[in-house]
Amino acid sequence: MSRILKVSNVEDYARWVGAPSPHPLVCLIDYSEVSPIRTSLNNYSVYGMFFQDKNNFDLVYGCGRYDYRDGSLICVAPGQIGGKEDDGSYTTIGGWALLFHPDLLHGTYLENTIRRLTFFNYSVNEALHMSRGEYEFMEAILRLMQHELKNPRDAEQDHILIGYINLLLMYSERFYNRQFLTRKVQYGDMLTTFQNFLFEWYSSGRHLTEGIPSVQICADAMCMSPNYFSDLVKRLTGETASQHIRNFVIQQAKSLIASGKSVSETAYELGFDYPQHLTRMFKAITGFSPTQYLASLKKG
What is the mean pLDDT of residues 244-271? Predict the structure, then answer.
């Protein structure tokens, strides 16, 4: 079994790489000052933001193995496992690691803000890839934090550090949104694959035994984490992944009703346990019931 480093607090990781950690809840590491470091597969109980620069090695995250890329940002949240298996080897890496304990955020505005930032639950292969200018901008903020952490801790320091962390997170969100937009053509193929997956799900009859496919099932089929998949669909279509799935189901229902199927027949053919479940979804999405839809077709 692989040895896993338990990062219960920021000092655990700092001690492993040989970096100072004067603040009990925040640790900022400039890898150029501690490299080479011994590799480790880490079980995090803290938040981590890893800014990669001038690296050429792979790492494990979940069941996958991925390449680090220059100018990339990988974020982890408490409860996640990631890193490179400890095989006794040392590696020279560049970039920065920022770790902060959830206790730092208790009672602050950032405690609620960070919960909506889904990129903390992306897989490593869904990392943020920054331009050189974006990376240098983020690094400038990190250097300001580094300067602050060298000061004696006082009543204002935690507020200042939280401000810097919030700034990094907001720019990370902006840069992720940019990444979604600039890769829109590339991601268009994903939407086609997503649509084909839904067609296959219903044409093969899987819906009759497994029901409507969940976002998790669809994300797995796209080889993405659910959060990244959902955010990507939202950026590309303006609707959530779950809305896209329900809209697909209702389009199938409309086709069946238009072909002469009754509401009950349509519901059972689409895998609903009861016709009223279809009626409820149909009305929520279209604003009218299947019966009203059928009546509108007859009028037309």
Answer: 90
